[in-house]
Design a protein that fits this description.
Blueprint (H helix, E strand, L loop, with lengths): L3 H18 L14 E7 L4 E7 L4 H12 L2 H8 L4 E7 L5 E8 L12 H27 L4
Antiparallel strand pairs: 1-2, 2-4, 3-4
Organism: Gramella jeungdoensis
Pfam families: DUF4268
Protein name: DUF4268 domain-containing protein
Amino acid sequence: MFSKEESAQLRKEFWTSFGKSFPRKWVLYKTKIKDFGFKFVADKKQALVCLDIESFDRTKNELLFDQVLELKNILTEDYLPDVIFDELYVLESGKIIHRIYVKYNGDFNIHNKNTWQNAYYFFNEAMHQFEEFYEDYEDFIKRAIY
C-alpha cells in the first residue's frame, strides 16, 4: 500500500518517464472543438487512450458522438480495431461523458514500474492512430456543430 504522497510521486514519475520515452507534441485538447479532446488515462487498474466528449451542452455532445459514431467502421477497420464507444461513461467524479477509447490489454498498474514500458508503447501507438484518424476526418466531425 502506498501513501498518498508516494502514489502522487509514482504518478508524476510515470508521466515524466513517458514524456521522455516518447517526446512529441500530442493533439490532446488542441482539436479546435471545445470539450472534445484526447486523453491518456493510467491508474491502478487500467491504461486507456480516449477521445472524450464532455461539454455541459448535451446536444453538442450528442451531435459530436453521433458524428464520430458514423465513422465507427472506418475507425475500427483502418485505425483502432479494438475501439469502444461508450455513450454513458461514468468518470470517478460521477460525471457522465461520451468516451471513445481503447484499453491496454496487458497487465498494468501505475504503482508497478514493471508494467510501465509496455503501456508506454500502447499509449504511443494508440494515440498516434487516434490522431491520424482525427486529422483525416476532422472536417467531417466538425460539421456536426459548425
